Amino acid sequence: MADSLQAIRGMNDILPHQSHLWQYVEGGIRAVLDAYGYREIRLPIVEKTELFKRSIGEVTDIVEKEMYSFEDRNGDSLTLRPEGTAGCVRACIQHGLLNNQVQRLWYAGPMFRHERPQKGRYRQFHQFGVEVFGLEGPDIDAELLMLTARLWRRLGLQQVSLQINSLGTVAARASFRDALVEFLRAHRQRLDEDSLRRMETNPLRILDSKNPDIQALLADAPRLADHIDGQSRQHFEQLRAHLDAAGVDYSVNPQLVRGLDYYGRTVLEWVTDQLGAQGTVCAGGRYDALVEYLGGKPTPAVGFALGLERLIALLEQQQSEFAGNAPHLYIVALGERAQRASLTLAEQLREALPRLRILTHCGGGSFKSQFKKADRSGAFYALVLGDDEVANQEAGLKPLREQSEQQNVAFAALPQRLAEIFNY
Ligand code: ATP
Ligand code: MG
Hints:
The protein is of the alpha+beta class. It contains 15 helices and 16 strands.
């Protein structure tokens, strides 16, 4: 194919052998959110550019250099959403969902950022976002973290750990920012180009630097914790007490920040050391100032977004059995009667065991060639039907992934037998 017709760099196809794992992950996340009473909100992929400039902030990486913006035919500047919070807040204000109401919401879908593509970092990627409006206490912050911890358990995800921090109020952060800038000015010669620029525009963002030299310098920098106001400190202590009581492990990372002005108090990240530099699987925090900033009534808010590509990469690394969508059963049939019987038998089995993946062999061919296809499908078992078997109302069940003999099983006993084998 001509290069010019290939997919855009950093925008991936999700192929049939991968989509099964995506469905498993998406289904698991939806089930957990449902169990906590969170409801889905579906939002447009395109919004006015102005919305992102205002909500994410003019001096952030996203707005400065990563947005996919374009002019609509009538001249409006529009942008493919780089994240979901802005659109969610916009929709909630627009439809009056925040008037003296608590909202526990989630959304999912593609996000777009023009970053340098690499492992775990793409230009189109997928997030699940969760936002709660109308609750200011640390209890809801804790609920969100318990929900994520349950999610990892449900998905079988290991080797992620929780880091939390508190940013304090806007005023507390301003006083910290002054102290930080004073320190950075004194060490100007050790700063890289990015940090020099951020020192003028958005100094808190320097704490988030991926440059090890900058991180080393920051070890001696003033600490945000020393500037935090009493109420925020109390909020954070209560959050920690909730997490301790619920048995959710975490560490406090004083370097953890979100560079945006409207963030305050709780910030959180779930990180792994298994994915190289792109180790943050889930990130978020409290943003009590944003709703008012976008024109709504003052409304406390807290949320997080998790990156599906990174989550799935981690699962693939951990559990190779999820790596494909191997069928449980591949039905091999020789002879006209057997072929017809195989289709109806497959239907009966799907009726009895709807979660099993059952492939019927179509297109005829010798036993040998059918078995080859069964093997190549990755199926765990082959079910063998010939005209004799059909006459006896039974089928041969043969394991394909271990050395073991074929056994004959009566049609009527098959659902029970398969349920046992697959722990159904
Ligand atoms: P990073 O520091 O890795 O750039 P971020 O702070 O820009 O992350 P958020 O905006 O908080 O990320 O997005 C939440 C999550 O979405 C991230 O933790 C990550 O899992 C995922 N994510 C963000 N950007 C990308 C991307 N370009 N490709 C894949 N996943 C991403
Ligand atoms: Mg980023």
